[in-house]
Input
Amino acid sequence: MVLIQNFKRELTKYYPFSKDVLDAFIAILNPRTLKKGDYFLKQGQVPKSYAFIKQGLFSYYHTYENGDVVIKKFFSENSFIASTAALIQNEASLFSIQALEETKLLEYQNTDFRQIMKKYPEIAYFHINYLEKNWVVAKEPLEINLKYKTAKIRYEQFQTEYAAIESRLKQHQIASYLGITPTQLSRIKKAIKK
Output
C-alpha cells in the first residue's frame, strides 16, 4: 500500500487526478523486482514499458562500439524510468537501463498507458508535464554544461543534483556521467578537499 501511496504522490506532483483516473492508472501497474546488475532495458531492444521506482537505483547509459560507456542519467526512488524517445518512436533504444542495486518497481505497459491516456485527458496532461520538466527543461543545462563548464564545476553540480545518491555510486559511474576518467575525478576530489 505504501508503494501505491508513493506512486500517487509522484503522479500528483505533475497533475491533479480524480479518484477514477488514479484507479484506472493503478489498475495497469504490475509489481516487479530486479536484482543488482539486471536490466530493465538493454541497448538495441525496443522498449515496451515504463516503470516507477519504489526502491533502488538505475543507470541510464549508452555503450559505444569501442566499449566506452557514457551514463546520461541516474534514477532512484520515486522516479519514473523508460527509454522515452524509443517508446514514442517504437524503435530500438540507444540506451540501457541497468539496476545498480536490488530494485522494486511498478511497471506499466506502453500499450495500456496509451489506452488510458486516450480515455482520460488528465493522464495525457501528466505525461506532457512530466516530459517537459524532466526531459526538456532539465536537459538544456546539461547540454550546455558538458560543452562549456569545467569538469570540476560539473562535478560540483553533480554533487548538488545527486546528493542523495552519490554515496551509492562507484567512482567510475560518476566519472562516466561527467564524461571524464576515474583518475581525473580522483584529482578533482583531492583539489576540492584542499
